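TASK: fixed-backbone design
INPUT:
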């Protein structure tokens, strides 16, 4: 089964050159690590969300949130107690639970996490794995490292699909009356075991696929497809560099 994050389309994000997107992505992600206020991080995150909405549709904003919501809740709950500087906003008896510094730090971490996730999601969702590998190879990344990236980006959604399929299969074979009374560990441990078995069973297939493609050979490799040549790379890189500068400028000014 071949699964990947890429969603085919004809939006402006899809049409931009793969090398230009790979070149600008680290700059965009690094902009969220520059010291800045939550308001600046919010503006940057909203800008990326607007780009995703225009290119892919508003529904594409939900999958990252569905995946990250446990982490976001943990950040929201665990960060304020460890940052108590500034005026107190909420006290529980004599204990200060929430302060202005705790709120600011929590918002900073949440917006950084969301902004980085949406930035990476915008590229991966609009860049096919073939173009991704060709772009990385164009920058000089070894073939083995490119293969690791490809396998990782295909394995994650494949395992997610396997998880849902196995979970549905277990539900069909379980007693409806006992579903709500079983502990969470007892409910999901058989599913996790089945997913691990399916993953192990796929190792020989992956090994044969790598062997058939000559993985490990030392001779120069060729490629069936290639990236487009011409001035498009320069134009796309210039446009994306300008967009990244606009995104990064508020954070640099604050810094």
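OUTPUT:
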């Amino acid at each position: 089964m071949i699964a990947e994050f890429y969603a085919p389309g004809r939006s402006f994000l899809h049409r931009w050159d793969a090398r230009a997107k790979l070149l600008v992505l680290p700059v965009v992600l690094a902009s969220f690590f520059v010291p800045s206020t939550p308001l600046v991080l919010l503006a940057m995150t909203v800008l990326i969300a607007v780009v995703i909405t225009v290119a892919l549709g508003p529904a594409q904003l939900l999958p990252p949130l569905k995946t990250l919501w446990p982490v976001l809740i943990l950040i929201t709950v665990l960060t304020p107690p460890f940052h108590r500087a500034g005026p107190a906003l909420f006290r529980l008896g004599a204990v200060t639970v929430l302060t202005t510094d705790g709120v600011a730090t929590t918002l900073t971490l949440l917006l950084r996490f969301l902004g980085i996730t949406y930035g990476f999601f915008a590229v991966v969702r609009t860049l096919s794995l073939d173009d991704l590998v060709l772009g990385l190879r164009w920058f000089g990344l070894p073939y083995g490292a490119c293969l690791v990236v490809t396998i990782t980006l295909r394995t994650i959604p494949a395992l997610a699909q396997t998880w849902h399929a196995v979970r549905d299969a277990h539900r069909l074979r379980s007693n409806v009356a006992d579903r709500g009374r079983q502990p969470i560990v007892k409910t999901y441990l058989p599913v996790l075991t089945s997913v691990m078995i399916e993953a192990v069973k796929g190792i020989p297939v992956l090994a044969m696929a790598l062997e058939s493609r000559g993985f490990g050979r030392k001779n120069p490799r060729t490629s069936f497809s290639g990236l487009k040549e011409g001035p498009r790379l320069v134009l796309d890189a210039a446009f994306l560099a300008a967009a990244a500068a606009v995104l990064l400028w508020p954070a640099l000014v604050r810094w």
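COMMENT: Residues 165 and 208 are 25 Å apart (CA to CA).
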